[in-house]
Write the structure tokens for this entry.
Amino acid sequence: MPVEDRLRQGLEANATSFSPQGESRLRQVHRQRRRHNAALAASLGVAAALLAAVAVQVAPGWSPGSTPPAADDCSPVRGHTAPKEDTMDKRTIAAAVTVAALASACDPAGGTSHNLTGDPERGASSTTVPTLPEHGGWVREVTAKRGRALGVPARTVRRLVGDDGVLPLGFKLHQGTFTIWTNDDDFEATAWDFGNYRFKRGHVLVLTTVSDTCPSCATSLAWHTIGNDVVFDSVDRTRYDALAEWLWQGRWQHQE
Amino acid sequence: MRAAEQREYDWYFRASFGPVSRTVFLMVHDRELAEDITQEALYRMLRHWRTVSGYERPEAWVRRVAIRIAVRELQRRAARTDKERLAQPTAYDDLPDPDIARAVAELAPMQRAAVVLFYWEDRPVHDIAEVLSVSESTVKQHLFRARHRLAMLLGGEVNDHAR
């Protein structure tokens, strides 16, 4: 075996065997924070529901037995079965989504939301928020070269892109859900990540993952259209991860 | 530091800690030292955050600083006497590929850095030259010599036309 190949294999094996203690501590802190945020969001949800119930009771015309308006539920759909996928790849994508996102899944700002529960009424109340059409989808290709240039770790680029140096991606909004998919090595389209989406004022699209790799992870993307194509950008560039920037940012071509 | 700056710094800390520690570990073969060096680089980022946060890629700055600290540490170690080095043996056998670790440890500090950046991180030569503050031809020379030394130690063939 040429020494270069032996070296690459050996370095990769040795590097992956090293799990920095600091990193696991950071993960622990991150998990604790997420739990704290989730608890806070849940409390806020309960408080909002109580307030809504009180408001309905005081409002004229309310009668016992009628249904009060539901408070917005930001929790992921329970029991939703994720398709079988490569967990490493999903984790990578989910990580991209996670790190890019500091926006809460329960953002109190107004917006047009969609959900996987199949209730078309929920979240569709605000018509002033600009939205993207649900028909068709958008596709783009990202290259290994661009990924490396942005600073995505070489191993991640290799794992995601494979040998041909190009990673085709598809993005679709359908019946209130989003899916991002790619072609596998056998050219089968495979969903990488999926979840609910909603639009916020100021051309912001908030995607909330419900896949089992990163439930409730949310990412916010600024968007604008050029014809039927859509261009995604980071809402806050300084917080944007290289991986998320590589996968999401830029122009997506519309496809019927 | 304001709260927004703190959050931004935290984000870079989280994003950089793991990858940078792994690269440094491949150079120094010491888990604790690798983490210490990474933390030192991140601490320097914190001290100079006003300036570093204005850079296009603050994480690249951290990586560069960590690798330079690692190279200096290796140079200091190389200057130690044999007795001192024997007092602090490196445990290679708990690694999945101890032969590679031993062979890389035989290289000069700059060669180690060049090899790790080239073969592990897949960095192009001009990037490595920038990180190590040397010219591109010096990096190529380091890689050429390292390849030959490693081929000798590992008993493999060298393909000098390889990227």
Residues 115 and 143 of chain B are 6 Å apart (CA to CA). Chain B touches chain A through 47 residues (CB under 8 Å). Chain B is about 75% helix and 0% strand. The mean pLDDT of chain B is 85.
